[in-house]
Acetate kinase
Amino acid sequence: MNNFKILAINSGSSSLKFKLYDMPAGNICVGGIVERIGSSEAQFSINDKTKTVPIENHENAVKCLLEELLEQNFINQLNEIVGVGHRVAHGGEFFKKSTVVKEKELEKIEQLGELAPLHNPVNAMGIKVFSEILPQSIQVAVFDTAFHQTIPSYNYLYPLPYSLYQKYKIRKYGFHGTSHQYVSQKAAKVMDLNFKESSFITCHLGNGASICCIKNGKSLDTSMGFTPTDGLMMGTRCGSIDPMILPFLQKNLYLSVDEVEHIINNESGLLGISGISNDFRDVQISAEKGNPLSKISIKMFVKRISEYILSYASELKRIDGIIFTAGIGEHSAYVRREICKQLACIGVRLNSRKNRKNEKIISSENSEVKVLVIPTDEELVIAKDTYKLVHNLVKV
């Protein structure tokens, strides 16, 4: 097998997260993030060292990143990077797996921006910039929705007129697929299980949050839907609500569609209820100081997660493990404890000491269901998928 460098990219509206891998071994050469793109005081972090630099746009961010890789000898020349894998939020029904991106594919990713307006446009922008600056590298899109393509129609269809699905493809797509796939595969290894015969409930809990029901190694159901706004209460997103609230707001507050969309995506969730922050850590501190709305927002957050887990437990019949991952899932022993209290009815029991220490398996010996904390690594999934697609196309 050929050995070469793969760059895994996660583009945000004002950020660019990256990891450079030596593939196929999967060894990380370097990783970091460029934040506050568009500012004269952008933050460029690489290998835990941060410097403040002016970065006008994503093109400047990419140039700055590549210059740093050359300067610090992580690469000797740009053509060592033979593939760039990009996280793309929404693949619709058009993209069922990771794919090499050319003009036609890029156009489709941009069109799907209507379904993921906070994500697809900046994902597409990242692909464009790298295509221009690294024309010799193969660009690959790795879709958050791909893992969920195995969800059966009775779970992905909405109870709307079927003609709306036929004409507009209105259905559940699901997101965070690379994360759900990675942590469930990792958990199967930890538990010495055959992944293709395993059943997990994975909880990706961060500023964006979703839960996935995995049976025999395949996504059976997930909480996010047509867009990433559906499902759980999140940092700024409302999650599932009575749909008639939206026309009510439009009629009574004379709001436009864009204004309502802004409320449900940017002003709701933990931020909307607590009035403090979209960051769970800030809300928890506020709750500990006695802020009643912060306390309520945490109870709502925990309740909705628990309800999804219990509904998926009934769908699976047998659960090999419940997995917590992402920022809150990996680091908040408090959230895990509060959720698992609600799961006592299905035999979940935590080991308090292991939970506080964020150990891999945090359930007690007498727990009927294993509970695990598995750090996610979406970038590694991106790098692996990219390598699979490009290693036969590149002559080294």
